[in-house]
Amino acid sequence: MTPGFATTDETALPVHIIEADALEGWVASQPAPVQTWVQAAGFKAAIGRSLLIPGADGAPEAVLVGYGTAAQRKRARFHLAAAVSGLPGGAYRIASGLPADRAEEEALGWLMAGYVFDRYRVQTAPAARLVAPEGVDAAKLEVIAAGEFLTRDLINTPASDMGPVALEAACAALAGQHGAHIEVIRGEALLAQNFPMIHAVGRASDQAPRLIDLRWGDSGPTLTLVGKGVCFDTGGLDLKPAAGMGLMKKDMGGAATVLGLAHMIMALGLKLRLRVLIPAVENAVAGNAFRPQDILTSRKGLTVEVNNTDAEGRLVLADALAYGAEAAPNLMLSMATLTGAARVAMGPDLAPFFTDDDTVAAELSDAATAVADPVWRMPFWEPYEADIEPGIADLDNAPKGGFGGAITAALFLRRFAGEGVRYTHFDIYGWQPVAAPARPKGGVGMGARALLQALPGLLGI
What we know:
Blueprint: E1 12-18, H1 23-28, H2 32-41, E2 50-54, E3 60-66, H3 70-74, H4 81-84, E4 90-96, H5 103-112, E5 128-130, H6 138-156, H7 164-178, E6 181-186, H8 189-192, H9 196-202, E7 210-216, E8 222-227, E9 229-233, H10 242-245, H11 253-268, E10 273-283, E11 295-297, E12 303-305, H12 313-325, E13 331-336, H13 340-346, E14 351-355, H14 358-371, E15 375-378, E16 395-396, H15 405-414, E17 423-427, E18 431-432, E19 442-443, H16 448-459
Parallel strand pairs: 1-3, 1-4, 4-5, 8-10, 8-13, 9-10, 12-16, 13-17, 14-15
Antiparallel strand pairs: 2-3, 6-7, 7-10, 11-12, 14-17, 18-19
Helix pairs in contact: 5-6, 6-11, 9-12, 11-16, 14-16
């Protein structure tokens, strides 16, 4: 599915965006037939409500879309998108009422409202298409929406069709689309090339574990994106209960999100050198699965005591981060559906991130607000470092106690990110549990648009 705006040469129905407290004045300014129609329809200008206005011949000549109250708008994003599914097919243009500082958000929301996941069942996307508002970079928004759609498609696809082999194929397709270079280290070659923890986590699956390495760009600062690609997580020998396993097709949401972001970066031609590292595995159960109390030696040489095989994401990320740090990139980011603790702290809508760099934190926070992609800074709280040091090995992958789980996981990853490398970690959810404007229930990108907005400032491009 390719998101796109309507073209300006199409006949487009004018859209009047009406705030709740401005409805009475707008109606009073209209001809008597329009006043009668709006009053008879009981239109209240609530978010998500729309009303077609007929012309003299009975055909629609305009549409009203509710914009609610200021208080209601603070509690939601992409307000116009809430009305898209209720509009008949055709082209629409904004005629009045859209604040200039919200035009980009609302136009993108309209595009993203057109997403459906139709791989397994015929579904019809909303047919109302928007002419890009004046002053909006339509081509850029179409690229951003396409990156988001890629992320959603990857997450929504079940593990039967999105295991390590299929995830590699998706990376190869993206590389081919943008002329990027891709290398993949698979199976026993992981041991030969010193990626022991990626191998250990994925070796019990019928699909060999692998490290996918995508590179693009030949000039500019270097950016390395590391995405957790656990295509399904049974929990390993510390088996998850059924309730905990139900959404584990989304445990490769970090990989899906960095691939969506990578598409945005490459399609927009940002002046940087991009590297994407994805450890792609299935945490399966078999006789050769890694075990509780095993001690693994990482690529960096640090030893790790496995106190829970269900804390596998940080193990595969650790080897990938160590590898990425060896090239000393200007900026390295990891994205992972890593901890339930992050969901307890932030819920499903906020993407927590960890960084030691106040400049990175400020840039990300400002960017997130600008593009309606909320993130929230969490601390690398150093007093908790002792919690990830079990004594028998250098590190513990699952500290006892349960407190500060998102923080201890982030501290674990930081040990592998390299001295002197600017490093930021996102602990995302990657799933929309209840449908919201521009975000149907299912897989969703988190933090990618904020990062895209922040990259020019972070990398000086």
